[in-house]
Design a protein that fits this description.
184 residues, mainly alpha, 6 helices, 55% helix
Length: 184
């Protein structure tokens, strides 16, 4: 019997459930990203390894908002840690499959999910930043925010509050769901 929590209106998701769903969501969100990102995450078989993508700009390109030292630390060490963790878990999973022993499958799958999600989210993060970016949303995107949230400012407020309240993470992604928000 599976005792994993199920997401319903009256049951709050656990951190584990959120991480599992985040891995699926992050994987689905990568559709349409750059070729460089796709090359770093797509693998032809279970023996390939994930790789740290190069930044699409110089380490100091986002100054004064994010300095070079922080970019190097966050990209070269923090993100690399997720890549290394995903590859380690992947290697363990390959061994389990070769040997046919799965007594440690739960922690290995958890580590793969956690680290691969971190790798994918960071890869999206680097691609989302730009030395010439920022500002207030405009055009069709601003219209959609105003339609769905009441105003651009309301959307930014809700998104910021949600991201600040993610346990141990602070990650937030705004994604489009084609389904209506209410069922008739």
């Amino acid at each position: 019997m599976n005792n994993d929590p199920v997401l319903t209106e009256d049951v709050a998701p656990t951190r584990r459930t959120v991480l599992q769903l985040l891995g699926v969501t992050a994987g689905l969100t990568t559709i349409g990203t750059s070729d460089a990102f796709a090359a770093s995450t797509n693998k032809s078989d279970m023996n390939d390894k994930y790789a740290l993508p190069e930044l699409p700009y110089a380490y100091d390109a986002l100054e004064p908002h994010i300095d070079e030292k922080i970019m190097r630390l966050h990209h070269d060490e923090h993100h690399q840690g997720y890549v290394d963790g995903a590859n380690s878990a992947l290697s363990q999973l390959v061994e389990m499959r070769k040997e046919g022993t799965f007594d440690q499958i739960k922690p290995v799958k958890r580590d793969l999910s956690f680290n691969l999600s971190g790798h994918i989210l960071h890869s999206i993060f680097w691609e989302s930043l730009s030395p010439t970016g920022g500002g207030t949303p405009s055009g069709a995107f601003a219209e959609a925010l105003a339609h769905d949230f009441g105003s651009v400012d309301s959307a930014i407020g809700e998104f910021s509050a949600a991201a600040k309240n993610v346990e141990d993470s602070g990650w937030g992604m705004l994604v489009y769901d084609h389904l209506p928000t209410s069922c008739s």
